[in-house]
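Hypothesis: this fold can be encoded by more than one sequence.
Test: take the structure tokens below, design a sequence, compare later.
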């Protein structure tokens, strides 16, 4: 079988699956807790973070593990906006993943002022151009 929907999920490498099963069965503590099971989990996560950082040439502190792609999308978009307040546009398309569009809609509903032009939403210092790419392709 040829699996082509890697946008939704990808096949799990057997080595990764084996390591994950070991972790999930044996290490279920809360890594933020003070008790021994939680501290052990924190140590394992720290080791995993160091391994990934070394593999991609990053610092351990630069990595954030998320529970899903949706959480990662939200974290990345909101993080960029918070880190670079001088940036005043987000450009996306109507065919973007729903997780990305939900962030744009959230921003529209919380800090945005809807412009009469249906191709973009104007924010205090930001323009979210949801339909821009779609309109460029049509024209």
């Amino acid at each position: 079988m040829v699996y082509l929907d890697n946008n939704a999920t990808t096949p799990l490498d057997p080595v990764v699956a084996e390591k994950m099963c070991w972790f999930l069965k044996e290490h279920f503590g809360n890594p933020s807790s003070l008790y021994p099971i939680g501290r052990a989990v924190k140590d394992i996560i720290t080791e995993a973070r160091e391994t990934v950082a070394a593999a991609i040439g990053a610092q351990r502190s630069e990595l954030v593990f998320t529970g899903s792609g949706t959480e990662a999308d939200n974290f990345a978009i909101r993080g960029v906006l918070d880190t670079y307040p001088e940036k005043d546009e987000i450009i996306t398309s109507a065919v973007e993943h729903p997780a990305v569009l939900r962030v744009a809609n959230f921003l529209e509903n919380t800090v945005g002022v809807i412009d009469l032009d249906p191709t973009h939403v104007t924010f205090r210092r930001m323009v979210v151009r949801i339909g821009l790419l779609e309109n460029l392709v049509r024209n």
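The helical segments are 14-26, 36-56, 69-83, 98-111, 132-138. Strands lie at 89-91, 112-113, 121-123, 127-129.
Hypothesis status: open.
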